[in-house]
Design goal:
Chain A is mostly beta strands. Helix content of chain A is 10%, strand content 44%. The longest helix of chain A is centred in the middle third of the chain and has 15 residues. By secondary structure, chain B is of the alpha+beta class. Helices cover 16% and strands 50% of the residues of chain B. Chain B has four helices and 13 strands. Classes of the chains: A mainly beta, B alpha+beta. At the A-B interface, helix 5, strand 20 and helix 7 of A face strand 1, helix 1, strand 3, strand 4 and strand 5 of B. Strand 20 of chain A pairs antiparallel with strand 1 of chain B.
Chain lengths: 677, 212
């Protein structure tokens, strides 16, 4: 019921398939536990839990409920073998207020294909019922006792792990002959002291728990429990795995076939002397590109070489856009043009120059190892800001686009209400006035929602930079979400630059300047950003408040290649504090990312307040994954157990690494299988 | 459901297109009706004047029929497209790639199969298949295949009778196995009908050659 792979209240040594992301909600005795569990690697899993426990305290404060946030981790040491059980070690509520903290070592074995037996030893919560002296005390006397205090919470209390009295737990699970139905029974070592002795949340009459577990056809799991001899419980679990999209792959339109040239002839070059050759090529490219979700930006052509600068409008994976373009050029370009140079453009920045020979495209279109072969023969180089030689532009500036969309804003884990939202409408407009110079803005108007219920004023010892987020939702007038002038440029080889002026985000406006260095074939990048931020008025129109601050970071980005990417930022945050942020993401090559971050600054934990330091989880979900239809949009969400003023970064749109990194380093190579798709 | 209005169609707004496609699929599934077999209603007269190659493709898992027309030709590989923008690439009637089906066949080699089909007698050989997994990484598979000739028979496709060998191909490796069948003409090895495997999720595809 803690939302992790396990029996009922007790864990087991099993793990989910790698990448599995599951969310479960368990209700019993007035307690609602919501847990998100992610199988980070085949052996390591992490969980984030948000529990609402009723009848915890006096009714006058927060209605007697306590809202507890906790993180768990589990590592499977040994996999199950023929005679060997699976063994895992885990820690629950590592960084929290300690209500649920406990550690365990557990083993699970199938005794028949349908019956699994589990046994383990636990500490903390798992060592509270029928406990005995800690056997680890034989190693070191310090293991004998466990301290009770957790202070502000938010800090892992390593000093407590595996200490204090220990207890044994056990359980059995039987897969019944009825498909999807399982029966579980366990002997729990959790005495629920805080709930049954210190308070009277429920009556713990026995240590035995029983469960009926049913898996529906779509994978949803429903469980019913009879607990501790006195309570009934219910749990619903839903999940998905980024590695297994429902569609099985892209169901987007098939690519245009390569149009081969006749063999054994000499390709004439007289076409270059034709008067309207540029206009004809431009018109053909514009028309055919649009059908393939691409947009022509500029091109230059000579008898043997064509350089095409383009934008990818719909393909979720970059190599697919590049492959489509290459195919189209075999259809459009006159026969004598043998060398294609393809340059994907993002916001006026030339990301990479990919040189592919037309003969290779003709030869490898249907080769069984065509993707690897064409990658090996292609050349990837740094793309200069302007095309070589004389070029023809295909975009008529100013390039104006606009959209009206529904808009959803969520607020999670507020102590008064775990989930609040506003629904409204968003009007967004963008004008690219010159290559790289963009004016854009968005206006939001709330239609209905309850974000304005957040009336709490958080006491903070730091400058109020984030803890007043509720005040930005008070008024229901139309608000300027952002309004900026951005300039993107390439100051030199492997360098990208950005300057943004205006209303940058919900709470701040000002000036932001950034420079990123990332060579084309490098999985490593370094960036520098400096901002001058002024606090915006709560009505989010044109006004500002008095508070302003200079912030900035030096950032190092590393695509580690084994499914992980990391980022370290060192600098000054919005409240004037100085420190560093570390972010680690489990990144999948379909665009999915599940990551965790934390920030440590020179603000003492006591000054920061509850939670001690800023931390959280972040998710990036590609929209195309859900339907299989190629789209470039992603849904990004950051979840923080506590939002306070320390370690707060300015939320500037269009930071450079996110714009260009998909075309650099190993990322392009790993996803190159999509070239011929 | 609210839908988005934009000044240019691609890449903006809600994924209305994707959601509509999913909704249509779900509605079609619920209706449960198998699409009518177009081969029954077709006559040679209706096909007169049409230039080949033209095929009809049947997807047993979805119980749907599609017409296939030639959209590209490179060396000895022909690429056929459906009206719904899926494509099948074949070399001498042996499928080597699909696009737009979801769990597509990215690439496959066909030389060994084609040589075996031409010989029309029992042979064993290896086949290589390439696909992409859910995270766009290349998956390479190798199968041990054996071809057997189940004998000559006469089949009829839209009023035309063809004298063919029914050639059965059985391929296996440690994790999966499949069986393809080809009905190849006895004199010039044109494949008039075939039953070919794509992937576990898509299943098999049946092809009928209407016009050579």
């Amino acid at each position: 019921m803690f939302g992790v792979t396990g029996l009922i209240d007790m864990p087991t040594a099993e793990s989910q398939p790698e990448g599995e992301l599951s969310f479960s909600s368990t209700y019993f005795a007035g307690t609602l536990r919501n847990t998100l569990t992610f199988q980070i690697t085949p052996r390591l899993s992490g969980s984030f839990r948000y529990a609402i426990i009723s009848n915890w305290g006096p009714v006058t404060t927060t209605g007697g409920r306590t809202y507890d946030r906790s993180f768990d981790a589990r590592f499977q040491l040994v996999r199950e073998g023929k005679y060997r059980p699976a063994v895992a070690i885990g820690a629950q509520d590592i960084i929290g207020t300690g209500i649920y903290s406990g550690e365990y070592v557990v083993a699970t074995k199938h005794v028949t294909p349908a019956v699994k037996v589990t046994g383990g030893i636990g500490w903390g919560r798992f060592g509270s019922n029928n406990s005995f002296a800690n056997p680890l005390a034989a190693l070191h006397p310090g293991f004998a006792t466990r301290s009770a205090g957790f202070g502000l919470g938010g800090v892992p209390v390593f000093g407590n792990w595996f200490r204090g009295p220990a207890a044994l737990f056990a359980g059995v699970e039987w897969q019944t002959p009825v498909k999807g139905l399982a029966v579980k029974a366990e002997l729990s070592s959790d005495a629920y002291t805080l709930e049954t002795v210190d308070r009277s949340i429920f009556n713990r009459r026995s240590s035995l728990n029983f469960a009926l577990d049913y898996v529906l056809k779509n994978g949803t799991r429903v469980s019913g429990y009879y607990l501790y001899g006195s309570e009934l419980g219910l749990r619903v679990t839903v999940g998905l795995n980024p590695k297994k999209p429902k569609s099985g792959g892209s169901v987007g339109a098939a690519p245009p076939p390569v149009v081969p040239r006749p063999k054994g002839v000499i390709y004439k070059t007289e076409w270059t002397e034709q008067a309207d050759v540029s206009a004809v090529l431009r018109a053909n490219m514009k028309k055919l590109f649009k059908a393939e979700g691409l947009e022509l930006v500029a091109f230059s052509v000579d008898p043997y070489r064509a350089e095409v600068r383009f934008r990818n409008l719909t393909h979720d994976i970059a190599p697919e856009a590049i492959g489509r373009l290459a195919r189209l050029l075999t259809q459009i370009m006159p026969d004598s043009v043998e060398t294609f140079v393809l340059v994907p453009m993002v916001k006026g920045l030339a990301t990479v120059a990919i040189t592919i020979l037309r003969s290779d495209l003709e030869a490898l279109e249907h080769d069984v190892d065509g993707a690897e072969q064409i990658f090996a023969r292609a050349r990837f180089q740094n793309a200069p800001a302007m095309p070589a030689g004389e070029y023809i532009s295909a975009i008529s500036y100013p390039d104006f686009t606009w959209s009206v969309k529904p808009h959803l804003q969520l607020s999670l884990f507020d102590p008064d209400n775990p989930a609040r939202f506003d629904v409204g409408i968003k009007l967004e407009a963008k004008a690219e006035v010159r290559p790289g110079l963009v004016f854009s803005g968005a206006l939001i108007k709330k239609i209905f929602g309850n974000l304005n219920e957040n009336q709490r004023v958080t006491a903070t010892a730091l400058a109020t930079v984030r803890s007043d987020v509720g005040l930005y939702h008070r008024s229901s007038n139309a608000k300027i979400e952002f309004l900026t002038a951005e300039y993107f440029f390439q100051p030199g080889t492997n360098l990208y630059g950005r300057v943004t002026i205006g209303y940058l985000e919900q709470a701040f406006g000002g000036v932001s300047a950034e420079m990123l260095w990332q060579p084309v074939n490098s999985s490593f990048a370094i960036g520098v950003e400096v901002n001058f931020a002024q606090k915006r008025d709560y009505v989010q129109l044109f006004g500002f408040q008095a508070y302003n601050v200079v912030t900035g970071h030096v950032s190092a980005y590393w695509d580690m290649g084994n499914g992980f990417t990391s980022q370290v930022d060192v600098g000054r945050y919005l409240a004037g504090d100085v420190g560093a942020t570390v972010t680690i993401d489990r990144a999948f090559d379909n665009g999915w990312k599940v990551g965790a971050f934390f920030t440590l600054t020179n603000v003492p934990f006591a000054t920061f307040g509850e939670g001690s330091f800023d931390k959280g989880l972040r998710f990036v979900m590609p929209v195309s994954w859900f339907s299989g239809v190629p789209r470039t949009e992603t849904i990004a969400k950051v979840v923080r157990p506590i939002l306070r003023d320390g370690g707060a970064k300015l939320d500037v749109p269009n930071r450079l690494y996110g714009l260009v990194s998909d075309y650099h380093g190993d990322r392009l190579q790993r996803r190159w299988g999509r070239f011929w798709r | 459901m609210l839908s988005a209005c934009t000044s240019d169609a691609p890449g903006t707004g809600l994924d209305v297109q994707g959601l509509r496609a999913q909704l249509a699929k779900r509605l079609a599934k619920n209706r449960g009706a198998a699409a009518a077999n177009p081969l029954v209603a077709l006559t040679r007269a209706k096909l007169a004047g049409r230039e080949g190659p033209v095929m009809i493709m049947y997807t047993p898992k979805k119980r749907t029929y599609s017409t296939l027309g030639l959209i590209g030709e490179n060396q000895d590989v022909q690429t056929f497209g459906t009206p719904t923008k899926k494509s099948i690439s074949m070399s001498g009637g042996v499928m080597l790639a699909t696009r737009g089906l979801g769990a597509d066949l990215l690439a496959a080699d066909t030389q060994a199969v084609r040589a075996a089909l031409k010989a029309a007698k029992a042979t064993t050989y290896t086949r290589r298949y390439r696909r992409l997994d859910g995270t766009n990484l290349l998956v390479k598979e190798s199968f041990q295949c054996s071809l057997t000739n189940a004998g000559a028979e006469t089949i009829e496709i839209v009023e035309l009778r063809h004298r063919v060998f029914q050639l059965r191909e059985r391929c296996e490796n440690e994790t999966s196995a499949f069986s393809n069948t080809y009905w190849a003409s006895v004199d010039n090895s044109v494949i008039y009908k075939s039953h070919q495997w794509v992937s576990r999720k898509v299943g098999y595809l049946d092809f009928y050659l209407l016009i050579d």
